[in-house]
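Bench notes, afternoon.
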Amino acid sequence: MKKSFITSLLFLGIMFTANITSKAQFKADGQFVQGSAIINQALGNNATRAKQFSTSVDWGKYKAKNSANIYSFSVAFQQVAPNITNSNSDKKTFTTGLGKGQEFYKTLIDKFTMYGRVMGSINYYKNESSSGDAKGVNLNLFGSGGIMYPINQQWLITAQLLQVNVATISYEWEKYQISQYYPTNRVTQNNATALIHIESQEFKYNFNPYISFSYGLGVRYVIK
């Protein structure tokens, strides 16, 4: 966790300082729209079984030649496969959300540009698993980064390479069931099973920064 936390801070630092060291790239006050499709693969021993598929539609406005304000609408699906020790650990999560943040740019070579985002979002999600379902609302702080390449003055191709999740605050409604065994015949030692249905509400806070590899492509159109 410590190594992941330090790496996350370094990545966020690069994104924050990119606007200081970058060359002029875009026209201030210009606007753009972008559509993206992304696959995230979380890193770490406890997260290697989780993959997330997401799409997003963004609107942005360049506030300077090397930074922009971003507004985003996203839809995501995440699936965690069952592990060897617990076959009931499978879980599917559907998420939709609205985000706001900033994007920074730094020239690499030729026409290639590195970009980094720092975003905050509010999301509605639904978890489905073999033991029960849960619904909730969360606030999420995260960052992402990748490269951009212009086709012409109005069209650009973007490729997201990684994402950093920093912190999440959520409120969740959960319904699940557990199995309880009790003896029905003390002579034969036969047991019966009863399903107990439970409902709960819970406030959660998670500060555990981790990095996800991303495989994402997007198309950006700059509005003149």
